[in-house]
Amino acid sequence: MKNRMLYGILLAILILPFAFQNVNFQHVLIMFLIFAGLGESWNIITGFAGQTSFGHAAFFGIGAYTSTVFFYKFSVSPWLGMILGAIFAAVVAAVVSYPCFRLKGHYFAIATLAVAEIIKQLFVSWDYVEGATGISIPVKPDSFWLMQFHKSKIPYFLIAYILFVIALTVAVLIERNKMGYYLKAIRESHEAAEALGINTTRYKLYAMMISSAITALFGSLYAQYILYIDPFMVFGLDISMKIVLLTVLGGIGNVYGPVVGAGILIPLSEYTRAFLGGTGKGIDLMIYGALIVVVACFEPRGILGLFKRSKKRGAQYVKTAA
Question: Do the domain assignments include residue 268?
Answer without folding.
Answer: no
